[in-house]
Amino acid sequence: MGRTFLFAQTKPAKPGKQECLPHGLDDVNPTRIPVKLHHRVCLIQTEDAILAEEVLANRRIAQDVVGRIADSVLLVRPGRVEAVVQELQKMGHTPQVLG
Amino acid sequence: MHSVNDEFWSSQVRRILESYDETLLRQVATRLCRPRNHWPNEELIDRCLDTIGNAAMLDRRLKDQEVGAQNLLALIGQSRQFLWNVGNLVEMAVALGTLDGLKAVRDLLEAGLLFPKFGSFEESPARPLSPGRGRLKNFDVWLGQATPPAAFVHPAVARRAMSRPIPWPVPLRHEEKRDLAVLEADGLEWPLRLAVVWQMAASMPFRRTQQGDFFKRDLERLQNNSALTGISSDIPTSAPDLGLAAVSLGLALGFLREHEGEVLPGEFRMASTVTANTSATSSPKDKSPADADGLAATLAGLWAALPRVLDWNVVRGWQPGAMLGNPHPSAQLLALALLAALPERHWTKPEAVEDWLVRRHPYWSAAKDRTPVVSAPEGEGPAGRGKRGAAKQHPNAEPGAGISAFLLGIAYPLRLLQAARAANGEYWVRLSPMGRWLLGRDAKPPAAVSFPQTLLVQPNLEILAYRQGLTPELIARLSRFASWKTLGAACTLQLEPASVYRALQSGESLTSITQALERHGLKALPETVLEALRTWSNKRERIAVYSAAALFEFPGPAELNEALARGLPAVKLTDRLAIVPSEDGIDYRHYRLTGTRDYCLPPERCIEVADDGVTLTVDLARSDLLLETELQGLGEWVNAAPSPGRRSYRLTPESLAAARGNGWSLGNLEEWFSQRTGMPLSAAAKMLFTAATSPAVVLHRQLVLHLDNAELADGLVQWPPTRDLVQARLGPTALTVAEDDVAELTKRCLQIGVELRPAM
Predict the structure, then answer these.
(1) Given A22, A40, A98, which is nearest B600 (Cβ)?
(2) How many CB atoms lie within 10 A of CB B612?
(3) pLDDT tens, residue by residue, B746-756
(4) N or C: which end of chain A has fewer CB within 10 A?
(5) Beta strands B543-553 and A96-98: pairing type?
(6) How far is Cα B436 from Cα B339, in angstroms, rounded to an integer?
(7) What is the ipTM of this complex?
(8) Backbone angles phi, psi at B34, to 5 degrees
């Protein structure tokens, strides 16, 4: 976590103040890819959209799903992953828990 | 279990020396490394550690010690457990003939050969005590503290001390017997029992009460599990509460761990967690963990962990919270050390060992002194003392030292002993080759016999494991993906979805499981078993749950593909999003972060609302994943970005109708608007959201009377003759009049001199 904060620079540095950049990284790769990073994301990825629908049909899981960023990708409410995994197991699924 | 790694203990010694007051440090250093100059503290500590690592200097320092202190170190070496409660050390010193056992401990502390334990080893191995907590000025203060003090020895010291034989004050009676049929266990009883208890904890953690006991349900699970509590027929005697003993042992070994009142499964790796690196006849560098095969290493770990089993003892069984005055660790070590002192091939009776200990161990001998007992001849056990002696035991004293039960019920299954049954039914015991190696009498453990093919996998998913081919490594391996059902000469396991799922979750794969079964199987794997494993494995592949992953949001597909091409270890979710389970493998040099957001933080205000009330502009640097998904459900993306780093969405009747259909309520929308924009819901948005459900609007004709000034309008609205003819006031100077009232209003206005003219 601490390491990634080093990269966060959404505002230009004040005049006379050095920018908060990782040590020498600008010199290493001038063609860095712009990206926005989301930490500690909890989500479910299913094999296909039908399985995602099946998962969402479970009322308890649906309560903990706060969004759907793709047909087969469901965002889980922070802190509710364990409950979701347990509910998936009750449904007979054997989800692989990563991260 | 505490590591036997020398570096770990050296770091602990350094930490403790750093926490000594300077005067105490200099006193200890003077005895240990004998500095000739006034060195700084750091230099002194370095020199102390150098002395501990120097075998020749260490031998000289050990020779300086009194016999009682030397014996104590030798016993610690034989135990392979380097951390001991001071109470047990005192008991051992007294049992060995030292009049003042505490003095022997204090001598070792002052000589820098024994170190007090502060805090937890696991928390911060190399962190010195903070100055605020005070430095240790003398050992008496530490010994008098409330919690039972514990002290540790550096393994190098224990190894050197072990090479010297212990002069026992009264040797044990023994005989050489040639006509006995020697029995020796395979040493797998406890590894198997640990495997069962580990699986039980994995399926459902054991919950502890505030008093340290287990809740009734878990207590019953541990007491009634036949695999845990049953013993093999070749083991001479049993011990109480074996399931709970397994939990205590598992905790001491690190196979189980405690967290917030629950006993959870830890890392279950038999042979690799224990090492066998001590021997009386070799220097530390002569041996490595690889010198001992898996079984020897496992048994060494179990033997070393026994003194740390404090919640259970062989006499009373489960004794939660009975930390103080537990004499069993010292008695058990003394019993084995006594046997180690016997000539090779000589036998003795377990009762003789018990009798020796009951007479000399201060815990029992003190109890005997308090209550008169009939003296029995040396070597005759408590049973031989007759009813009179047994009846007059001190009420607080335990029914016996339990040494016979320990030797035959614990040490024998651990393969530390050989047993033999005489014609009269009495058992005789002596150290086994494994026991002799563990207690430093032999240089090498007995060679292991290997039968790699020992499993019979049956089509009904049951595995038959023949005991002679089992090894601790195989037990640990099987425990990961199959559930132990029965233990015996042939153990049975069951392949189950839950057990296979647990294995897959812990890093096993379909290939590794099938390879393990094929490698150790007597026959080829049945097709039904393969099919079941394949099904369970495939099923697991269908759903992935990321608990705390890093999600990369790229501006477009090209950037995402470029990142993947540069080696980002990510799974593609959409054409712009990719997820990485762990941030450890990310090379951040390839990326310029335009923003970072923590998914677990509360929503942030990052939306500006345009004057039209329906155009929302998102600050992408501050937006989060939830916002993106929410906006996709509420509005439509506006192609033309207002400026770099911003994205616009427009609320439309269709998008809001869809949101309403997806479960959004007006309350949700108002709350969301307030959280994300810091403003109340705009009128336009509210109208679009609620219009469809509002009652129908009535449209009708009206005449508007435009006046020159507001005062005149006020007068017409107030004066009774005209007031009833005005329908409503639209503004300061505009009134509405019904068409039918125009003539009457014109007439009354003329009375006051105001002329009403229709507009042209």
Answers:
(1) A40
(2) 11
(3) 999 998 888 88
(4) N
(5) parallel
(6) 9
(7) 0.77
(8) 50, 65
